[in-house]
Write the structure tokens for this entry.
Amino acid sequence: MGLIVRDPTLHNMPSGYAAFCDLARAGHHAHTMGFHGKNGDVSRFAARFRVAKSFEGIALEGYTNETVNGYNALLRVFLVWSAFERFMALIQETPQTILPRLRAYAPARNIQAIRKHDRSQLWLSFLTERVNSKLRKQLEAIRSGTSNNITFFAAAARHIFAHGHLSAHANGADPRDVDAICGILFSFHMNVMDKEFDRVVGKHKQRLPNQTNGE
């Protein structure tokens, strides 16, 4: 059955993970539950989810609180995107195909919230100028209002930060705005993963006979 975290009550795991563990111990497999992959793939996703949700911050000597908070926010996006990539693989989606699943979580409203913290588009411009042509096209669509696929925003932030270009003051942005923008990206993607994971597991449980379902 693959790797399974044996304590389903572990703090900060995705909603539905305890139920997934119960099902796995009863002999169910991830692919029959509606996931793409093995039970171990699900547990590895859950571990990354837990790291992202459990992250509390870093300590930097000689930096202002605003700058530290900005870097903490960037690291949260880095961690949440690591988990989100794993999650997309489990549900056989990519950033290009996942938008229909996102619509229930108001991606356009979240992008508008981001715009309020990037009125001069300093941050979005910085990202757009430093990504590859495919991702640049997606960011330009977000900028023009023809796309609300917020996952490309998070993917770009993670990519540029991981490669050393993005900082809490990038392009003259206020680190407090960076903190707010990254907070929106983090919360949105964590909520999608949490709710969608629980939905897939719950849908599988509903298909089971009552005696197997524990009802």
About this structure: Residues 19 and 201 are 7 Å apart (CA to CA). The radius of gyration is 19 Å. The chain has one domain: 17-213.
